[in-house]
Design a protein that fits this description.
The complex is a heterodimer of chains A (300) and B (312).
Chain A (H helix, E strand, L loop, with lengths): L16 H29 L2 E2 L7 E2 L3 H8 L1 H35 L3 H8 L6 H11 L6 H9 L13 H25 L4 H9 L4 H29 L3 H6 L11 H11 L3 H33 L1
Antiparallel strand pairs in A: 1-2
Chain B lengths: L25 H28 L21 H6 L5 H6 L9 H31 L6 H10 L5 H14 L6 H9 L3 H13 L2 H9 L4 H12 L1 H17 L2 H6 L8 H11 L7 H29 L7
Helix pairs in contact in B: 1-14, 4-7, 4-8, 4-11, 9-10, 11-14, 13-14
Classes of the chains: A mainly alpha (300), B mainly alpha (312).
Chain lengths: 300, 312
């Protein structure tokens, strides 16, 4: 990481401190004002009662105590976890298969371009298209389901289907990007290994299990860190399609936080729940990082 | 293990030796069928947007399984760009409220341009200071920046909203742009890595000739880094264009409303029973099209930028 090329030995070099301050000032201001300060303030606000109109009042651990007793909060945490699991499992498995197939079939840019296209549109666009495709009455998706001879599904209006559907919409948008990340990782595996495998008469599936998967593990771990952290922050799709419903079955944590802040103006409590999400994310990142490091040393 | 060796899919290596003609191969055929399905799944929703946008909304009910536009018309697009009168729009199944996507399109362009130009330029300046200038505590300050990579953007949104409100910038384009206009830790990190890789020779020759470091930055470093700067710029533009959550918090009226937020509003205004699907899909297409064009123009650069070069 941080390559320390400049050793203190080079005393002869002119000191650029003044120029450096000038060069770094805009970015540093942005960093301090819009990242560090808000982070500290967010933590502070979580210990206050704050409705935006009057100054925040310190109220100790009240928000956290309330959080512990708030069934909607716990439900939203469970809903979010459920979403993350469905989203990540589907997306990673599919992306892995796509990446391996691209590697074996063709490495042409056009194919990767097509796979990536959904990623270029916003979550809002993806959500609206699928709201239409999966519409109970008129959606082409339900027409196809009927054609196969199954019953129509109220994808976004049925509490059992809503989270898998939201997950599916986000898989559609993100699977290409994930596949390309994995594909990039695959390029680091030397082709000679596969040639050797082929000479030994190994099948594609054997080579996948014996060569690809073990060597790809550290990269998969990195991909998982990125996608899991992103997945926990799901908001756009829910905000556009279901707004948390039916009842609370798609009320993911980030949507509950938004609703608390902008629907009910309870910024203090919303901040406390944000802190909870932050803690969850930090723990998960840390655990995954540890795991990936352990794997890396195994395979170095 | 499977001794009955499966047909091995060769990736047509440059040195084709004993491997016989690929010919027909079941494994490969199955793989291609799968890939074709993936391609269809990726692209079908785009076709469906277009097909629906070009249909008359009222005809969609009867022709919901037609693969072509039903009773083709520009009505959806006319409603999106405010070209239909309220009554016409209501008759056609729309909301009848005046809506003008040109305005939101302009807002989105302004915000994404401000964010991209500012973020790339200021991050490049900082990256140069971290890569090339000599000053005390350089590595410490850089480490501090790197720690910023750990803060999920979502956590800063609420407090940033409070800040933007205190600055009186709620519902302004500047307020929407400001938090990401000055830097992101990733941009600084990405560009620093690249600057470190530039050979020092040309730079030192210029310095010996009496050029200032400021001049070296503008005349040498920036032009030599045009490729990564462009890549970063395109990716930043796309991210900013597609952002929904932050602008949703900050913009309340047409004054600062960007396309993604306008799309959400358009959706919520459409009649609950019997939504204006053709209008909605026309709006969706209008919101997505600029990025699709950008992608079409820079596909190779964007596709190849996805990897671990910047993260590792």
């Amino acid at each position: 990481m941080a390559a320390t090329t400049a050793t203190p030995v080079r005393k002869k070099r002119p000191d650029d401190t003044k120029l450096a301050i000038l060069f770094i000032a805009p970015a540093l201001i942005g960093f301090l004002v819009f990242m560090i300060w808000p982070t500290l303030r967010g933590i502070y606000l979580s210990f206050t009662k704050f409705n935006l109109l009057t100054p925040p009042e310190f109220n100790g651990l009240d928000n956290y105590i309330r959080m512990g007793q708030d069934p909607v909060f716990w439900n939203s945490l469970v809903v979010t976890l459920y979403y993350v699991v469905v989203n990540i499992v589907l997306q990673t498995a599919l992306a892995l298969v796509i990446a391996v197939m691209m590697q074996r079939l063709t490495k042409r840019t056009w194919l990767r371009g097509i796979i990536l296209t959904p990623y270029l549109v916003s979550n809002v666009v993806a959500a609206l298209v699928f709201l239409w495709i999966l519409d109970y009455q008129l959606g082409i998706g339900n027409k196809v389901i009927e054609l196969i001879g199954l019953d129509r599904i109220a994808f976004l209006a049925d509490s059992n289907w809503v989270i898998p559907t939201v997950a599916l919409i986000n898989v559609w948008r993100h699977v290409g990007y994930t596949a390309l990340l994995i594909f990039a990782g695959l390029q680091t595996i030397p082709e000679t290994l596969y040639e050797a495998g082929r000479t030994d008469g190994a099948s594609e599936i054997t080579m996948f299990r014996r060569i690809t998967l073990p060597l790809l593990r550290p990269i998969l771990a990195l991909v998982l860190i990125i996608t899991v952290v992103g997945s926990f922050q799901v908001f756009d799709t829910v905000a556009v399609t279901t707004r948390g419903g039916p009842i609370d079955s798609s009320r993911v944590l980030q949507f509950y936080i938004y609703d608390m802040a902008f629907g009910r103006f309870q910024f203090g409590y919303a901040s406390a729940m944000s802190v909870a999400l932050l803690v969850v994310l930090v723990i998960i990142t840390f655990l995954q990082y540890r795991l990936s490091r352990a794997e890396q040393s195994d395979l170095a | 293990m499977a001794t009955a060796t499966q047909p091995v899919a060769t990736t047509a290596p440059a040195i084709v030796e004993e491997s016989p003609k690929p010919g027909f191969n079941i494994g490969r055929a199955v793989a291609w069928v799968f890939m074709v399905l993936v391609i269809l799944a990726s692209l079908f929703p785009f076709y469906w947007m277009l097909r629906t946008a070009l249909s008359s909304n009222n005809a969609l009910y009867a022709g919901s399984d037609s693969l072509l536009p039903v009773d083709a018309s520009w009505g959806g697009f006319e409603r999106v760009f405010g070209l239909q009168t309220g009554q016409e729009a209501i008759d056609a199944g729309g909301a009848g409220q005046p809506i003008n996507f040109w305005h939101y399109l302009a807002n989105s362009i302004i915000v994404s341009t401000l964010v991209t130009a500012g973020q790339v330029f200021f991050s490049a300046m900082a990256a140069y200071a971290f890569a090339r200038l000599q000053w005390r505590h350089r590595e410490k300050v850089f480490g501090f920046f790197l720690a910023g990579l750990m803060i999920p953007a979502i956590f800063t949104l609420l407090p940033n909203f409070v800040l933007i409100k205190q600055l009186g910038l709620i519902d302004t384009l500047l307020g929407v742009s400001l938090p990401t206009m000055l830097m992101t830790p990733f941009a600084v990190f990405f560009l620093r890595q690249f600057f470190l890789g530039i050979s020092r020779e040309v730079e030192e020759a210029a310095l010996v000739e009496g050029a200032s470091k400021v001049r070296v930055f503008f005349r040498l470093i920036l032009p030599m880094s045009s490729a990564p700067l462009a890549t970063l710029g395109i990716l930043t533009y796309i991210t900013s264009w597609n952002d929904y959550f932050w602008p949703l918090m900050v913009s309340y009226t047409d004054r600062s409303r960007v396309l993604t937020v306008a799309l959400g509003v358009f959706k919520s205004q459409t009649p609950q029973t019997g939504p204006d699907w053709s209008g909605l899909m026309a709006a969706t297409l209008v919101a997505a099209l600029p990025m699709l064009i950008l992608f079409f123009l820079f596909a190779k650069r964007i596709v190849n930028s996805i990897g671990f070069s910047g993260i590792k």
